[in-house]
Each structure stands twice: as C-alpha cells, then as structure tokens.
Design goal:
Radius of gyration: 25 Å
Distance between the termini: 31 Å
Strand content: 15-25%
Number of strands: 18
CATH class of the largest domain: Alpha Beta
Length: 468
C-alpha cells in the first residue's frame, strides 16, 4: 500500500506567487517518482493552491480531516518565505498527530530581484519556531534549503517515510506475550503501562492456552497439514524426527489463530523450558518463519525486544532478529559475536537448517529440543536497536546504531554472526552502565537515522544514537 502525505504549500502574499506553481509541479512529480500519494489544496481553492491566510488554513485542515485515516505524515513546502501562522494553524485545525517534515527552497544567486527571490531560508526558521510554539514535534531536511528535484531531497523523503511508518506502526502496535518469562531472566522484565502510554498494547496468553489445544489436534487436521507443509518448505529438516515437526505444526496452528483473532502483529514467546519439558520441541523455526514474513517474534518473552524488532522492520521493510551480545571476537575491540540458539529469520542465514538446540539439550535432552536453526550470517550492512522501559525513571529508553556483518572465521553452532561496530567498547559501556538487556535487535539494512528520529522526536523516548 502506498504511503500518503498531506502537503502544505505555503506562501506569503507579497512574495512571488509563480514560485508556488513551480513548486507544486516539482513536488508532485518527486512524490510520484518515489511512490507517495499527495493530498493538498487544489489551485482553484486558494491562490496557486497555497496556504497563506486563516481561511486557507481552515480549508486545508478540513481536507486533511477528510483523509485523516490515509495521511501518514505532513510535508510543509516553502517555495518562498511562507506564512508561519497559516502553516501551524492548518496542522492545529486538522487535529492530525503525525510526523511533519519542513522543506525550504534554496535561492538562486542570479535571481535575487523582487520578482524571483524566495527568502525561504529565513521563512523556514519562522515556520519551525511557530511549530515549536504550538507544541508540535517536527523533522527537517538534512540541508537547511534543498530543491525537491535533488537527490538530497529524495533521500530526505525516503528517510521521512520510514519515520512515518515507525510512528504509525508503534502507536497502534498489538503485541502477544505467550507464557511467562524464564524465571532466571529478570533482565527481560518490562512495564506494560509505560508501553501502553505510547499506544503499544500487550496481549497475554498462558503457555497452556497453546499447548492444550495443540495436543488435541489430529495429524490430518487441514490447518495442521498446511502448517506442516510451510515448515517443510521453509528450510532443510534432515535428521529431525517427524514427530517433532508435527508438534511444531500443531503449535503453529493454534498460535496463528490466536494472533489473527486478536490482530497481533508481533510476539514474544516463552521458548524455554516449559515447551521442551511439557511439549518436547523448540519453536525457534516457527519464530523464524513469522519474522521472515514480517511478523517478528522474540524469544524469552522479551516484549521490549520485539518492540525493537518491530521498529527495525517498520523502518526498513525487511525482517529483523533478536540476538544476544554474546562473545568478544579475539582481541579486536570493534568486533563481537552475535548469537541465539536460534530463531533468526532465514534472510539472515542463507545456509539455515533445522537441528536441535545444542545448549538447551545439555539439560533438557536432545530429543526435546529439535526446532532450533543452525546458520551463519554472511557479510553485509547491519543496524541494531534496543528499546527498554526504565521503570525507576518512568520512561522508555532506546539505543540505535549501525555496523557491518563480517565473514571472519567462526567455528560454532546456532544462529550466529560476527559484526564490526566502530567504537564498540564505548557502546558496550553505555549498555551496561544504563541497565540495558543483553538482547538487541538487528536488521540487514541501514535504519539508525530513521529510528533515532522516530523514537526520539515523535515517540518521546530517550534515544542514544551510537556514532551519530
């Protein structure tokens, strides 16, 4: 589905109006080029379709109200100085609470005459001052003035649409917490109330609500057979007992129905040790499959971990995974090993195959731990994010950053990767001194600028952007 922006073309009456007509054409062309729908005043309702009076503000606001369910964000375009009150009033009267991007046209040194000068450089400062006075959070282009036809502006747009996706997605997120957190992991405790304040709803289910119905399903149940086919088609299962795969299929059938009934977009599961003790499998493969299809699933009932995964996914449009900051890599201070036993989406592990969970098997038995994924992530770009509720301070905090997957030698098992992050030791100091969890979410695409803006500016969370 295409994203949609409400566009405010603003003008001040004693500045050249023909610049607005030019801007309208250029902006609409660029938005169409990058696949964004635009909602803006028509030219017959206002002078060149620009917002420059109180009446124009009312008309534009009414238009935005009529399309409020479609509009992901607002783009303010300043072909000339613009009218700062008209811009702020339009947003106020519309009632929209969406990200705002402010763009200003650059002046041409050869066109500083009265008929062609813009003064948008100055006007942008006035517009942004008014937005702040009205209490609105907003984003700006990387360059203070930038032409919509430039590649710089297209990058601004792409980043801004990522911000819009993250904000819209998180403010309406419905997450499923299945089972109790492992008793040994205080680290994954979180505050449902702090999350709810930002629009994130957590829905819970006891693990028995999955295991009981799953145990009653017949092998020839239509949906069980469908889930079984999906599992068998997903990755190699050589050496895995058929009974274990059938149990996964039944669990998947029950879990997906529960998610569909409650409109749940992401989950965090109690992946050990009740599942192994009472049901005889690992459900890592099921979690991987959900993450691969953009329904991220975190282990160890790490709800803020799956918030981190979902944020990355919304920012990049690609699968995410939850990992452990797990091992140093020799003596290299900027490299480390990421690991889980493992449930990463197969996008991260092209060589993935189903096996048993080596570490859990030492206490729970090999026969009870089939379903884990063994695979190595190859070299490429990566970004990371972690969201955490700080109950003591009554706030939500996050850190974000970027690095790279490397092909450095690594002889071990599970889902695994070697990464390089500039000044990693400084990041690790920040993590441990601020009480963050040992889990972090990762993506195979750049996203830290999008997340820093979305989580900090619009969600109102405290964000540390590593190496920003």
């Amino acid at each position: 589905m295409k994203s949609t922006l409400g566009v405010i073309l603003s003008s001040r009456d004693f500045f050249p109006a023909h610049l607005v007509t030019q801007a309208r054409s250029e902006v609409l062309s660029v938005l169409a080029e990058v696949g964004i729908n635009a909602i803006l005043l028509s030219e017959d309702l206002a002078i060149h379709g620009a917002v420059q009076t109180y009446q124009h503000s009312r008309m534009c606001a009414d238009l935005f109200k009529a399309h409020r369910d479609e509009i992901d964000g607002i783009l303010v375009v300043l072909p000339n100085f613009g009218d700062e009150k008209a811009v702020a009033d339009t947003i106020k009267f519309s009632g929209l609470d969406v990200p705002i991007l402010v763009q200003a046209y650059p002046d041409d040194l050869t066109s500083f005459d009265v008929a062609n000068r813009r003064d948008s450089f100055c006007g942008k400062i006035s517009v942004c001052s008014n937005l702040r006075q009205y209490g609105y959070s907003f984003s700006v282009t990387d360059l203070h003035t930038v032409s919509p036809k430039s590649d710089d502006f297209k990058q601004d747009l792409i980043k801004f649409m990522g911000v819009c996706r993250v904000v819209r997605g998180l403010r309406s997120a419905r997450l499923g917490a299945v089972g109790a957190r492992p008793n040994a992991f205080n680290t994954v405790r979180y505050s449902e109330k702090l999350l709810q304040e930002t629009g994130i709803t957590v829905l819970t289910a006891d693990l028995t609500e999955m295991l009981g119905p799953a145990a009653k399903l017949k092998d020839d149940d239509v949906d069980v057979k469908k889930q079984l086919d999906l599992i068998m088609d997903y990755l190699p299962t050589k050496g895995v007992p058929t009974e274990s795969i059938m149990r996964m299929a039944k669990f998947s059938s029950v879990l997906k129905k529960w998610m569909a009934d409650l409109d749940i977009q992401a989950t965090a599961l109690q992946c050990w040790n009740s599942l192994q003790t009472n049901y005889g499998v690992n459900v890592c493969t099921l979690m991987s499959m959900m993450s691969e299809t953009l329904m991220p699933s975190a282990c160890e009932v790490d709800i803020t971990g799956v918030v981190s995964m979902y944020s990355l996914q919304l920012a990049t449009g690609t699968p995410s995974a939850l990992v452990d900051w797990n091992n140093n890599y020799g003596n290299d201070p900027d490299k480390c090993v990421l690991f889980h036993c493992g449930n990463w989406a197969k996008s991260f592990t092209p060589d993935a195959r189903m096996e048993y969970a080596n570490i859990l098997a030492t206490t729970l038995g090999k026969e009870n731990t089939y379903g884990a994924i063994n695979g190595r992530t190859p070299s490429g770009p990566m970004s990371f994010a972690r969201v955490s509720t700080d109950d003591q301070l009554g706030m939500i905090r996050a850190y974000v950053g970027e690095g790279e997957f490397t092909d450095d030698e690594l002889d071990t098992f599970g889902s695994r990767a070697v990464i390089k992050v500039p000044e990693l030791q400084d990041l690790l100091k920040y993590i441990v001194k601020n009480g963050f969890e040992h889990h972090v979410a990762m993506s195979g695409a750049a996203s830290s600028q999008i997340l820093s803006e979305a989580l900090g500016t619009y969600m109102g969370w405290e964000v540390y952007h590593h190496n920003a």
